[in-house]
Every structure is written in C-alpha cells, then in structure tokens.
C-alpha cells in the first residue's frame, strides 16, 4: 500500500514530463534554450496571444486594433555581476506574417528585451504593443527591440511598409533596412516580403566587447547569410537592466493580421542553439480550403446534369447570377486583391438592408458589413457610376489611394464594380462621423474642447500626409465634418476618398471639374475650377471653425448677415469678441489660448485669397506651437465680399503678402479698428 501511494504521487509528475517532451522545447543549460514549436510550453501570454494545439505561438488573432505579448516565463541576467557590461548574446526565431485580408498586414511585431512583462499601457496599431504616445523615446524604458514592420508610419520615419529596424527605447528605429538578405552565392541582395505568408528566420547577435549588433534575415530553409541585413554599434550596457525579460509583442491596425512565431532559441556568450526545422508547426492558413482536383472535375458535370433534369433550377441559377453580376475587364487583373466580389459585399451587408445603413450622402449610401471569411468590419459605400472612358484611370486612383497608410486616414480597402454602380470598401469606424457629435440633439452627449482640439490636430496631420508626405500629392476635395470619422479612441480620421485626385509632386493638378460641398468650397474654384492643396486648406479652415463653433458652414435659419459661419466669426473678430463664437455647450471647460489659436487659424486657412493661406506643413507648426501664428488685421468687409470681389476681377486693387509668414495682412480695402 505505501508503494501504491508513492506511485500515485509520481504519476502527475511523469505526465507533466511527457507533455514537456512533446513540446520540443529543450532547456539546454542555464545560459541557453531552444523551442521548436510551443506545444506544452509555459510561456507567459497576454492580450490576444495564444498557443495553438499544433504549437504555433499566435501573437494576434482575427481582430483589429488589438495587441498580444509572449515572454519567456523567468527573467534573464545579461551581466555576470551588477557592475559589469552586458555579455554577448545570440537569439534566433522563426516567424510568419499571415494577412487575413488582401495582401496587407498592419502593423507589425517585435522581438524585445525589457525589464518588465507588463505592457498593459502600450498602444496598438503603429505602436506595435510596445510603447505609447507618452512613453515613446524615454530612456527610462530600458527596452531593446527588433521590429518587423509591415506598415509605413511617417511619425516614426519608417523607410517603407516592409522593413526591419533596431529600436532603442523608441519606435523611431536607430537603424532600419528593407526586408531581404544577401545571397552567399553571389552577394546579391534579394528582397523578401514580410507578409508573404511564408516562414522566415531572424538572427539577432550582440557582441558585448565590440558593442556590435547584427540582425540577419533569410527564408526558412536558407542557411544564415554571412553578411547581416542590419549592423550597428550601440552599447546595450547603457540600455538593458538586470534582470530583464525576453519575448515578443505584436499589434494589429485597421486590417486583420496574424503574427506568428514557430520556433525560438537563445544563447548567452555562445551561439543560439539551432532550431529543428523538421519539428516546426506550419503557419495557419486563412480563408476557404481549396477544393480537390477530383471535385473540380466532378462538380461541374454533376451541376450540368442537375440543370438538365430540373428546368426550374436553371431559372433560379440565372436569377442568382444576375443578383451578383459584376463588370470585370481584363485590365482589372493587375489590381488583384483590391477587387472585392459583389457576392461577398452583398452577404457582408445582409443584402444592403436598411438596418445596416450608416449614412446617406450626396454621392451614395454607406452600409456597415462584416466580410464572410476574415470577419473584418467594413463600411461599404454604393456610388452611382456609369462605365465610361477613363474608368481605368479612376479605378487606378482608387487602388493607389488604397495604399495610403496613416493613423489619421480611414483605410480604403478596395472596390467592386457593377453596371451603373461602384462600391468602395473602407475600414469601419466604430464611433461614426464627427458631424453627429457637433450637430446633435440637445440631450445627446457632445465633445469636450480637448477632444475637439485633438481631432483638429488629427485631421491636420492626415491632410499634411496627403499633400506632402506620400509619394504623390493627394487632393481630398471634400473635407468636412461628416467625412471625418472617429475611431474607438475618438481620434479623428479623414475618410471618403471618392472625390480625391492624385498627381505627381512638382506638377500642376489637371482637374478642372468643381466638386465638393457648399460652404467648404474655396472662392477661386468658381473662377478657375482647379482644385489645389490650397483649396483643401480653405475647406480645412472652415472645418476648424465648424468644430470650434459647433455650427454648420451655412446656417439657412439665421439672419441674412449671419448665414455664413465665416462671416459671423469675422464679425466678432471685428468686435474683439472672438471667443463668443465658441460652442456654448462647452460651458467654460476649455483652454482660451487653444480656442483663440483655432479660431484665428481657421480664418487664416479660409482666407479668400489663396496666396494668403498657409500650407498644411505650416498649419502643423502653428497647432504644435512651433511657430507663432501671423497676426490678422481686421477688415470692414466680410470674407464673402472679399471673395466675390476677387472673383469679379478686383485683384488689381488689393495688395496681399506673397507668403503667410508676414506679420500682418493688409489691403487697400482694409482699415484699422
């Protein structure tokens, strides 16, 4: 009996040991380890991170704007004693990025060394679940990371949307290179796509004596290249604390993405142990399973026989085909994954039923939908559009705009074309459009001043990216509150690119067709018909006034002298009561300096003379307090009257500064107060 008691006590221990052996995780000493798959491992996980039954460490899942982390359960000491330098170490891991939708992933993943495993305060999307807006760049982070970034974020000076970078306490990489490797056979650099749905291996090596960091990337079954992708000198003794944790972080942005780790090893003062590739689990497959060749042959025959036997079925199938009929031309093949099937969009929106209607505008209805396979929430806009000459250029611009990546732009995911109809698919914004908060009923919640000022800054940042930071100049041409959407954190995102136009930097826009919304149209559009970045700036100025005052650009119920919002604000500007125009619902809870800045900047951006308006680069500088706002001199004429005179040919009677940087704006039509 005593022997039986001891045996029953040992059984759980033996079972636990067996499970650990199945995981292929090998603890090969106090200064190294190796995982070839993660089944049965005891990694510390949080957020969306999980280990699948077949041993894949999935840092993210099929959701957007979320983060996940995985850490080795116990901390490591990188110094032999507290006063010594960080020892040499070597890390290798096998990873894979699996786009759930299209050929894009957002935003990326990192390998990291950190004094803490608590990343609850880290942000998603471009912050990679690693830092947040406040902590980014602080030396107190004591974080070393290697980022695998599948999005280009201009605020971090990313070189492209397919790069690897070394990060020191900061998401602006110390050094970065486009993903690829140098072939040992010929020394030629070969590009790799991080989002190729293929497993790849990364080696991170630190030489403690030379303070040299090398990062090498290669396809899974290619031996470690002799020449690293990244090489930099940095003394990690000034960064790392003892003890520190090692692990991975990842986050998603507006597109569903899977970031996976298949194997991982570490060695201190020795090379990391080799990962057994034969024991690695396979990357997960996303999407419908492919049909077998047998089914592809038999199914059409069976269907044809069935149609011949049952005539009514033929009628039903014809009707069904008409329901989902699309227009497809050969040239559209080049746009690949940016093209959605109408059938998917039909089912995503439950047949475009009114219960899914998000809004109705001058250019079409917008519906909420959930894509069948990826479960991605989208907004689908139906626009009337006849197929005419130039549709190829129009669709080409839609696809180009779909490549825009900025935290303050609503992601345009793709399109679908039917007879007389164009469907544009956008990322869904959970908090809806800004105008619903500005012009809501009295008993509904509104936005406080801090939220409004942040939204103004967000839209300015997005517009600056469109005008100057992308590879082409993008004219939005329809900036207004209803086209600014609010994400889950109430950040403003400029959306609805249905009217946007692109042209190369350094050239003039060719469009001469006036489009947009009354009240936001720059006065020179009526004379020239040509949209420019400064016509976008004008609309942005009106937008600032709308957000600050809580009133629409044109109030048809007001007195004739106060119907135009901008003229009403100018009137109070004359009287020295500019802050009186602030939305009365804010009830004193605001920064007077920020309100004055917003109102004056709104008037400057909406100046009737285009050469007096600032660029969006200057607008950003004014909003961030980097440059003082030019002083506006009062005028006895309304902006509307000045604009009218400008369009009627009275330009020769005015004298305006050629640049916005002047300290005042004067003209022979103005007078002092």
Describe what you observe in this structure.
With 673 residues, this protein is of the alpha+beta class. It has 3 domains: 23-279, Jelly Rolls (Sandwich); 324-427, Phosphorylase Kinase, domain 1 (2-Layer Sandwich); 435-653, Orthogonal Bundle (Transferase(Phosphotransferase), domain 1), CATH 1.10.510.10. The chain has 13 helices and 27 strands. The strands form 6 sheets. Strands 1, 2, 4, 5, 7, 14, 15, 16 and 18 form a 9-stranded antiparallel β-sheet that branches. It has a 7-stranded antiparallel β-sheet with strand order 3-6-17-8-9-10-11, with no helix packed on it. Helix 9 packs antiparallel against helix 11. The chain is globular.
Short description:
By secondary structure, this protein is an alpha+beta fold. It has helices at 2-22, 293-309, 311-323, 342-348, 391-401, 435-438, 449-469, 525-528, 533-549, 565-575, 592-605, 616-623, 639-647; strands at residues 25-29, 32-36, 44-47, 50-51, 57-58, 67-71, 89-99, 107-114, 144-149, 163-168, 175-178, 180-182, 189-191, 200-207, 212-219, 230-233, 245-252, 257-268, 357-361, 364-370, 377-384, 412-418, 421-427, 473-475, 484-486, 492-494, 501-503.
């Amino acid at each position: 009996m005593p022997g039986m008691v001891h045996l029953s006590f040992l059984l759980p221990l033996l079972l636990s040991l067996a499970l650990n052996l199945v995981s292929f995780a090998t603890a090969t000493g106090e200064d190294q380890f190796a995982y070839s798959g993660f089944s049965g491992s005891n990694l510390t996980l949080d957020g969306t991170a999980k280990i699948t039954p077949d041993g894949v460490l999935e840092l993210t899942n099929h959701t957007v704007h979320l983060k996940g982390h995985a850490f080795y359960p116990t901390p490591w000491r990188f110094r032999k004693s507290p006063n010594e330098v960080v020892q040499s170490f070597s890390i290798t891991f096998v990873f894979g990025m699996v786009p759930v939708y299209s050929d894009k992933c957002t935003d990326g993943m990192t390998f990291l060394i950190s004094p803490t495993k608590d990343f609850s305060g880290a942000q998603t999307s471009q912050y990679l679940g690693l830092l947040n807006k406040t902590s980014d760049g602080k030396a107190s982070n004591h974080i070393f990371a290697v980022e695998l970034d599948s999005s280009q974020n201009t605020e971090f000076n990313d070189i492209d949307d397919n790069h690897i970078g070394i990060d020191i306490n900061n998401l602006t990489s110390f050094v970065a290179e486009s993903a690829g490797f140098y072939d040992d056979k010929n020394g030629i650099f070969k590009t790799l796509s991080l989002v190729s749905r293929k497993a790849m291996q990364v080696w991170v090596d630190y030489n403690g004596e030379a303070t040299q960091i090398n990062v090498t990337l290669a396809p899974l079954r290619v031996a470690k290249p002799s020449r690293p992708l990244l090489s930099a000198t940095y003394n990690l003794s000034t960064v790392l604390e003892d003890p520190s944790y090692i692990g991975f972080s990842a986050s998603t942005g507006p597109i569903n993405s899977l970031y996976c780790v298949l194997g991982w090893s570490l060695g201190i003062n020795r090379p990391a142990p080799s990962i057994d590739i034969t024991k690695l689990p396979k990357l997960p497959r996303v999407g419908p399973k492919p049909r077998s060749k047998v089914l592809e042959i038999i199914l059409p025959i069976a269907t044809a026989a069935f149609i011949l036997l049952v005539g009514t079925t033929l009628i039903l199938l014809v009707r069904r085909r008409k329901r989902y009929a699309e227009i497809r031309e050969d040239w559209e093949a080049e746009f690949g994954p940016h093209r959605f099937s109408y059938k998917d969009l039909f089912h995503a929106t439950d047949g475009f039923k009114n219960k899914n209607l998000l809004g109705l505008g001058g250019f079409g209805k917008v519906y909420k939908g959930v894509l069948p396979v990826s479960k991605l929430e989208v907004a689908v806009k139906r626009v009337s559009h006849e197929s005419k000459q130039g549709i190829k250029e129009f669709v080409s611009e839609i696809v180009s705009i779909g490549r825009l990546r900025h935290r303050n732009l609503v992601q345009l995911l793709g399109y679908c074309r039917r007879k007389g109809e164009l469907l544009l698919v956008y990322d869904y914004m959970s908090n809806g459009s800004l105008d619903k908060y500005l012009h809501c009923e009295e008993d509904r919640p509104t936005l406080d001043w801090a939220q409004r000022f942040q939204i103004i800054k967000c839209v300015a940042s997005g517009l600056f990216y469109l005008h100057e930071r992308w590879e082409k100049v993008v004219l939005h041409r329809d900036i207004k509150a209803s086209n600014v959407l609010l994400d889950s954190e109430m950040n403003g995102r400029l959306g609805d690119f249905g009217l946007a136009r692109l042209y190369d930097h350094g050239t003039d826009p060719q469009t001469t067709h006036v489009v947009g919304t009354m009240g936001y149209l720059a006065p020179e559009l009526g004379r020239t018909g040509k949209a420019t970045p400064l016509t976008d700036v004008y609309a942005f100025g009106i937008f600032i006034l709308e957000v600050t005052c809580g009133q629409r650009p044109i109030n048809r119920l007001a007195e004739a002298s106060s119907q135009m919002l901008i003229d009403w604000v100018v009137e109070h500007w004359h009287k020295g009561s500019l802050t009186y125009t602030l939305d009365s619902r804010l009830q004193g809870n605001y920064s007077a300096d920020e309100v004055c800045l917003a109102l004056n900047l709104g008037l400057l951006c909406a100046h009737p003379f285009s050469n007096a308006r600032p660029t969006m680069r200057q607008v950003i500088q004014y909003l961030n307090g980097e440059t003082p706002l030019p002083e506006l001199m009062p005028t006895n004429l309304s902006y509307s009257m000045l604009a009218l005179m400008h369009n009627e040919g009275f330009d020769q009677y005015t004298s305006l500064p050629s640049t916005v940087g002047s300290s005042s704006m004067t003209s022979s039509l103005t007078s002092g107060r």
